[in-house]
Design goal:
This protein is α+β, with helices and mostly antiparallel strands and 328 residues long. 29% of the residues lie in helices and 21% in strands. Strand 2, helix 2 and strand 3 form a beta-alpha-beta unit. The chain binds iron/sulfur cluster.
């Protein structure tokens, strides 16, 4: 691994300044993704700015919802009593991700920024437009079983690997950023990008911006389910996942919120399906229709055609569990 400098500021302003001073600097917190990338030579920062001493670890609740510091550990957030009670969807998604050891190190901010697990991105002998813009896409004609069925481009068909991001999308979370030009808030749906012709950019975060936290403007949600379909029951990325939240009045759906993971370069929000479900009576047939509707515009590649069948079934099943029609 290339040698690098290491600094540990105690204030957000100092951390941002440390990045501004050095174009080869990067923030590090839990390091659960960045250190792997450095060991493989995919990232080679000149300087690591360790942000673990910044005061960004609090979880607070008020009338508007939750505020969660960017340095909150995934495990702390998943086990927080108010999150488990009011936002079980987020807790379920976090516990479906990675392993207990990784969740004890990984932070909320790092989870938002984790890179794709496309194997060609990690194999420096292969072409990859995300790792080396203009080199081509190894997955396009390669083994693309884990790849996107929505929103891909000829330049990249990778998916966002996070479970947390899918739940945050269904919960309309806001990402809080701080940078040299001040603070800004971005709805999570606008935070991650589709690949287009710039697949090297995963999100809209500025080069010298720091994620300081997220807010979730929501009251308690009871009828929820996070369904993750994967090759083994732990420590595996989603083939398809679904975050489903329903607001029910008896058996009538007042509103629905739905997002998918493992299918696109960003959490894939299903707004058309949400509109379709609003005002309807819960039933297995309705949820099957919802799954079918969600597949409009889907496009498979050589090895991931199975997702065209798996995804609508997963949506139907997640909605059935969230609504109480079937047990988890
Ligand atoms: Fe790289 Fe994206 Fe192609 Fe994977 S899908 S090889 S990340 S360009």
């Amino acid at each position: 691994m290339k040698q690098f400098q290491y600094v540990r500021p105690t204030e957000a302003g100092l951390a941002i300044n440390a990045l501004l001073k050095d174009s080869g600097a990067k923030f590090v917190a839990g390091g659960t993704n960045l250190l792997d990338l450095m060991k493989r030579g995919i990232e080679a920062p000149e300087r690591l700015v360790d942000i673990n001493r910044l005061p960004l670890k609090e979880i607070t609740k008020n009338d508007q919802g939750f505020n969660i510091g960017a340095l909150t550990l995934n495990s702390s957030l998943a086990e927080h009593k108010d999150i488990r009670k009011d936002l079980p969807l987020l807790s379920q998604a976090l516990l479906a991700g990675a392993s207990a050891q990784l969740r004890n190190m990984a932070t909320v901010g790092g989870n938002l920024l984790q890179r794709t697990r496309c194997p060609y991105f990690y194999d420096t002998s292969m072409p990859c437009n995300k790792r080396l813009p203009g080199s081509g896409c190894g997955a396009l004609k390669g083994f693309n079983r884990m790849h996107a069925i929505f929103g891909a481009s000829e330049h990249c068909i990778a998916v966002n690997p996070s479970d947390m991001n899918v739940a945050l999308s269904a919960l309309d979370a806001i990402v809080q950023l701080s940078g040299p030009k001040g603070k800004r808030n971005i709805p999570i749906q606008d935070f991650h990008r589709l690949p287009g012709d710039r697949p090297e950019l995963d999100s809209v975060i500025g080069k010298n911006e720091l994620i300081t936290g997220i807010s979730i403007p929501t009251s308690a949600l009871k009828h929820v389910h996070y369904l993750k379909i994967r090759d083994r029951s732990s420590y595996a990325f989603a083939l398809v996942s679904v975050a489903a939240a329903l607001d029910l009045e008896g058996t009538t759906i007042r509103w629905a919120s739905l997002a998918m993971g493992g299918v696109a370069h960003k959490p894939w929000r299903l707004t058309e399906v949400e509109t379709f479900l609003a005002g309807q009576q819960i039933s297995a047939g309705l949820f099957q229709e919802a799954g079918t509707l969600a597949m409009r515009g889907a496009k498979a590649y050589e090895h991931n055609e199975f997702k065209l069948k798996l995804a609508p079934l997963s949506i139907g099943h997640a909605l059935s569990i969230a609504s109480g029609l079937v047990k988890a």
